Amino acid sequence: VNSDYGKRYGASDNMGEELNNPSSRFWRMCLDETITYDRKLLKENHGTLDRVLVFGGIFSVVITTLLAQVVQSLSHTDYGQVTALLTLEMLQVQRAMAEGRPTANITATTPSSVVVTETPLSVKWIISMWSVSLTLSLPTALLALLGREWLRSYAAPTWGSAQDRGRVRHSRYMGLMRWRVPEIIQCLPVILHVSLALFFAGFIILLARAGVGVVLVSVIAAIVGSAFLFCVVAPACPCSFLSAHTEHL
Is-above-0.85 flag for pTM? Predict the structure, then answer.
């Protein structure tokens, strides 16, 4: 090993002069080792951020579309009833005019004539869960975008001697660790898992409200819950398939 390092980096530095010499063997060795370490670090984190951006973006669009459809049911005005009352009033006016009777005695349709329907509790639960799910997924996608910018700044090229580049890299690395950027990136998939769980919970309530059979809803809930728990808990078991967020479980 020493002979390989000697062929690659030259003779060893004099004792006590390793740090003071800007082009010493020590600094050149450190740069090569940190390049290998940073390449692995950036590859893992970029892969996580790319998956979070793609999934979070598509998932946010799906939630927004479904939420917009459900929010329409919050309208307390029954427009079908309003149309029926106005049509009846128009017919009564036409009949009164045809018979020569005064139209002042015909009851006019007013806002108080319309029966206000209260929003069902199930719809409130669906909207609440999907709203929280959307609130979690959108900031997650934003953090993923910011994470890519942080990693881009971390991997920006440096110039100067081996000593200068080594010190700049160490300063960037300490800043990355101080602000816990790798931990933040690893937490993003966990937030998406929570958002996905809330979405499926609201979706199951929607199926139950739509009149789907209790047995079918229970089967769907069991399948979705089992698949979700398997994806989250199984990687934490002793095996070779570990995800970033389950390595700490």
Answer: no
